[in-house]
Amino acid sequence: MKVLLFGTCLVDTFFPEAGEATVRLLRRFGAEPVFPKGQTCCGQPAFNAGYEAPARAAAEHFLWEFDGDDPIVTPSGSCAAMVRHHYPWLFRGDPKRLAKAKRAGERIYELTQFLVHVAKAHEAGLRGKGTITYHASCHLTRSLGVREEPLMLLSSLKGATFLPMPDAARCCGFGGTFMAKLPEISLALADEKAASIEATGADTVTGCDSGCLMNIADAMRRRGTKIRVAHIAQVLAEGL
Amino acid sequence: MTHEQTSLAFRENTVRALEDSALRAAMKQAADTFGTKRADAFAPVADLEALRDRASAIREDVLANLPMYVDRFVASATRAGAVVHRANDAATAREIIRKILADRGAHRIVKGKSMVSEEVDLNSHLEAAGMEVVETDLGEYIIQMEGETPSHIIVPAIHKNRRQVGRLFADRLGVPYTEDPQALTKIARKALREKFLSADAGVSGANFAAADTGSLVLVTNEGNGRMVTTVPPLHVAILSIEKMLPSLADLPAFLRLLPRSATGQTITSYVSVITGPRKAGDATGAKELHIVLLDNGRTEILAGESRDILKCIRCGACMNVCPVYRAVGGHAYGWTYPGPMGIVLTTLLTGMKKSHPLVDASTLCGACVEVCPVRVPLAELILGLRQRKVREGFSDPKEMRGMALFGKAAASPTLFALGQRLAGAFWPVVRALGGKDVAGRMPAPSKTSLRRRLP
C-alpha cells in the first residue's frame, strides 16, 4: 500500500531521525512510504497565532502536494489535527478546496493511528528495551482523540517496561508560538512535566509530537536530567 | 479600592507570579484538588454527555432569544413584586445601586459573592459614597481585608494559603494567630454575624434568573448568601443579562452540572430560589427586592463572532484545568475574569486595546473545552480573538513580517528548503538575534534534513 509521508517541518528540520524511523516502521508493515519532495509545513505556526492568510497559503500548498487518494501518514498528532479540523475552516469560502480539505482530513493518520488500526503493529510482537514513559500531547489526545493507540503499541513491546506518567495529558507548555510569546510560563510548565517524567523512574520518555518533546528535552537539560527523549517512531523502530 | 486593569502587562505579571513560590504551591494544590474532585463527582453521572448537550442547547436557546427572555424575566419578576432596573454599562449599574441604597438611608451593606459586582467595581463606588461594604463570602472577606481582587471566579482567595490568612486575621482583627482553617472560619463567622444583624441592605449576585417565574437562583455553600438576601430589609441583586434560563424547570440540569464542575460537589449546601420580596405570611425574605440587569457590552458580544462565551455559567472548571492559570494564578490576567473564559470575556468586555496580550495566554491545549459543562468552544473562541488581534493591528510588527514570510516559504518548497539551510548555517546568529528565549530552548537544525535523507 502506498502511503504519503508528511514529515512535518519540525521533524524535517530538527529531528530527521524520527522521520527515518517512521519510514522503517511503515516499510516493516508492508506500506510503501513516499515523501512528496515539495512538502513544507501544515501552517500551524501561523494559524495558531491568528494569521489566517499565511496559514491558508501553507494549507493550499499541502493540499497540492498531498493530492490524490492515498493515505497520508504523519509522525505528529498536532499536524494531523490541523489538517483534519482546521483546514475545512480555512477553506470555508472555497467549495472546491473545501472538498479537498475534507478529503485530506479523512485520509490523514497520525502514525500510531495507522500502526494500530491499519498495520496492527501492536499485535506484531515488536521488541523494545528499558523502561519507557509516555507524554500524551494535547492535540493528539483531545483534538484527534488518540488516547489508547500509543499505549497499546508501547505496552506491546517485548523486553521493555511501560511506566505510566501521572497527569500524562497535562500540557507541557510548548503550544507552538506560545513557547516564543510567553517563554517563562512555557518553561515552568515544561519543568513540571520533566519532574513528572523523573518521578516515573523511566529511562526513556516518548510521545507523538516533536514540538512537545523538544520543549520537554530542553527542560530536562536545564534540570540536568539524563532521561532519553525520543519520538515514539524511534522507540518503536529500534527493535526492528 | 479601585483596581486598574493590568492585562497589557500580562507577561510581566506572569513573571512575577512565577517567582512567588507560595502562590505557585497554593495554585497547584487547589487546581489539583478541584480537578480530582470534579472527576470523582462526575464519575457516577452516566448520562453526562447527554446532560451537557441538553444544558448547551438550553444556553444556545437563551442566546438566540435573549431579548425575549430578558423581557419575560422583567415582566415576571415585576409581577412577583421586585423592582427591575436595566443598566447599559458599569457606571449606570453602580449609580442605580448607589441611589437605591442612598434613597433608603442604607449605610451598612453586606455583600454576597458576585463577579458582576466586581466587573462594575461596585464596592469602591459605594465606599466613595460613604457606605460600609462588607464582603461576607469567606474568600471574599479575606481578600477584601487584604485589599485584593478575586483571583478565581468561584474561589476568590485560591491564591492564599492558610498561614497567610492566619497572619492577616491576627494583624487586622487582633485575634491570636492560628492557621487552623476551622478556627479561622469561626473568627470570620463571628465578625460577620454582627455585620449581618446590623446591615441596612444586602447586595448579591445570582447564578441564574428564570424568565418564566422571575426567580433569582443562588448556588452557595457558606450560608452567607442566604443571610445577605433574607436578613436585611432591602436586597439588591446585580446580574448580567445572559444569566437567563427560559424556565425554572430548566434549573435541575444546571444544578447537576454547576456544583460538580465548580467544586466537585454533587450539590451545594444552599440553593436559594428568590421570587420577589417577602410576602405576607413568608417566614423570611427582604421586604424590598431590586434587581439590576447589566448589559455592559453583552448585546454587542451577542451580535459578534464570539457570542458563544455568553453560554458560560461561571463554574470555573476551565480555569481549574488550565495549565497557564494553574501556573500563574488569576491576578496575572489583570481584570475581573481569569483563565480561559476570562481571556475571552476580558477581551470582549474591555476591548482588544486594553487586553490583547491575554489572547496569547493559552497553549490551546484544549483541557478547558474538555471540561466545559455547557460546551463553550473556548479554544476556538481564543483562536478567533487571535485572528481579530492580527486584523486590528495589535500584533508585534516583527511577528507580522515574520508570518508573511512564513506564508511565502510554506507555499514554496525552494524557499522553504533555503530557509531550512540558512537556519542551519546561521543558527548561532539566529540564536543570538532572533529572541534568545525561543532559539535558546531549541536544538540546532539537523545538518541533513529529512528531505535530503530520503530518496
What would your notes on this structure say?
The complex is a heterodimer of chains A (240) and B (455). Chain A is of the alpha/beta class and 240 residues long. Chain A folds into two domains: 2-116, Rossmann fold, CATH 3.40.50; 123-237, Response regulator (Rossmann fold). Chain A is built from 13 helices and eight strands. Chain A has helices at residues 9-13, 16-28, 44-48, 52-65, 77-90, 95-107, 111-118, 138-143, 149-155, 178-181, 183-200, 210-223, 232-237, and strands at residues 2-5, 32-34, 72-74, 108-110, 127-134, 158-162, 204-207, 228-231. The model of chain A has no long low-confidence stretch (mean pLDDT 97). Chain B has 455 residues and is α/β, with parallel strands linked by helices. Chain B has helices at residues 10-19, 21-42, 48-64, 66-79, 90-103, 115-119, 122-128, 138-146, 162-173, 181-198, 224-230, 251-262, 298-302, 317-321, 323-328, 339-350, 352-355, 367-371, 378-391, 397-410, 413-425, 427-433, 436-439, 450-453; strands spanning 83-87, 108-111, 132-135, 201-204, 208-210, 215-220, 234-240, 244-245, 270-274, 288-294. Chain B has a six-stranded parallel beta sheet with strand order 1-10-7-4-2-3, with helices on both faces. In chain B, helix 16 runs parallel beside helix 19 (378-391). The longest helix of chain B is centred in the first third of the chain and has 22 residues, at 21-42.
Percent of residues in β-strands of chain B: 5-15%
Question: Ranges of chain A with pLDDT <50 over ≥5 residues?
Answer: none
Share of residues in strands of chain A: 5-15%
CATH class of the largest domain in chain A: Alpha Beta
**CATH architecture assignment of the largest domain in chain A:** 3-Layer(aba) Sandwich
Order of helices and strands of chain A: EHHEHHEHHEHEHHEHHEHEH
Number of helices of chain B: 24
Q: Pairing-aware structural class of the strands and helices of chain A?
A: alpha/beta
Number of strands of chain A: 8
Largest sheet of chain B: 6 strands, parallel
- The unreliable regions of chain B are none
Looking at CATH, which topology of the largest domain in chain A would you report?
Rossmann fold
Helix content of chain B: 40-55%
Question: What is the terminal separation of chain A in angstroms?
Answer: 20 Å
